[in-house]
Amino acid sequence: NQIPIAVAAFANEELSPQLVSTIIRDDLNRSGYFKLIEVGAAISETATIDFESWKTRGATALVVGSVQKKGEGRFDVRYKLFDVLKNEMLSGFSMDTPNPKIRLTAHKIADDIYEKLTGIPGVFSTRIAYVTKAGNQYRLEISDADGEGVQVALTSKEPIISPIWSPDGMKVAYVSMELKKPIVYIQNLMTGQRSTVANFKGNNSSPSWSPDGSKLLVTLSKGAIAQIYSINADGSDVQRLSNSNGIDTEGRYSPDGRFIYFVSDRSGGAQIYRMNADGSDVKRITFKGSYNISPRISPDGNTMVYISRREGGDQV
After folding, report:
1. What's the start-to-end Cα distance of the chain, in Å?
2. Do 251 and 275 form a contact (C-beta atoms < 8 A)?
3. pTM of the model as a whole
4. DSSP single-letter state for residue 58
5. Per residue in 58-107, pLDDT tens?
6. How many helices (H) and strands (E) would you count in the chain?
7. What CA–CA distance (Å, rounded) separates 17 from 13?
């Protein structure tokens, strides 16, 4: 049940380097939750809204706004969101925006629209971290959630894997093979400074952050077989959490920090398990299929996304 929404062109938005309304439409359309209603001319946030006309056109929500040039490369971006069915304004704000931040402002407006209409915070103004490979060069890249605004955080001739954000969005933990073995690093994206978190004998892999950002879960094979350990973000206080005769890896905290979800082959094939944060009370979570890996817990803690090998292929 997609939400029918009309996003009008913002008045004078052609003065800015990028069209704010286009970015908003693309964000909402990409989410899959909205059905975009065609709009003609630009509509300012100061215009009188003919709600009956928009009802006739099938819209239940309407977005309008304007862009005003302030000089010195700055713009005043204004927006309003209307509930067409109730004939009332749901939200609206203005932002003093420097030229390079036009896209970010548009994403924040899309976030506000998404939250007001679905009740769920939007993620359009967030960023993603990923690894690319061209020839023999690997690059850890950071971009906006829509793939724009790419910045290179690290370049290496050896593989970079498993990038994961710190809860505050300021740092990324990852595994680099630049010293010919897997080592876990943390890199501050503001300063570029990085530090070694786990460089023990054997493999150091699968980093993931605790909800408060004070420590990480890592998979270490320093005891001959890969097990899950906790370690402070500065590399101190290493504690073994899992204990099995199989390989335990890919540990992930639940959002409230009470549980750890992880992958283990202790039952013969890769399955997802859950244990308390101190390593106690281990329970198997997945039973369908012989190969289930990469657990990711939703922010509300109610659902889990994972990869399962079924019907001859890997499926999410």
Report:
1. 23
2. no
3. 0.86
4. T
5. 999 999 999 999 988 899 999 999 999 999 999 999 999 999 999 999 99
6. 3, 23
7. 9
Mean pLDDT of 185-198: 95
Q: How far is CA 199 from the centre of its chain?
A: 27
Strands 34-37 and 3-7: what pairing? parallel
Structure tokens, 97: 């925006």
Which residue stretches of 119-239 are H helix?
A: none
pLDDT tens across 24-46, in order? Answer: 999 999 999 999 999 989 999 99
Contact 282, 273 (CB under 8 A): yes
Residue where the block lists tokens 């283990």: 264
Residue 195: how many other CB atoms lie within 10 Å: 13
Tallying the residues shown for the chain, one arrives at 316
Helix (H) / strand (E) containing 182: none
Q: Which amino acid is at 86?
A: K
The dihedral through the CA atoms of 192, 195, 197, 202 has a sign that is: positive
Q: Quick count: other Cβ atoms within 10 Å of Cβ 141?
A: 18
Q: Is the pLDDT of residue 153 over 80?
A: yes
134 by Cβ neighbours in 10 Å (0-12 / 13-18 / 19+) ranks as: exposed
Angle between helices 20-31 and 102-118 (to 10 degrees): 40
User: Is residue 12 exposed (0-12), middle (13-18) or buried (19+ Cβ within 10 Å)?
Assistant: middle
Three-class SS of residue 52?
helix
How far is residue 84's CA from residue 18's CA, in Å, rounded to a whole number? Answer: 27
Return the structure tokens found at 79. Answer: 């927006």
d(CA 121, CA 115): 5
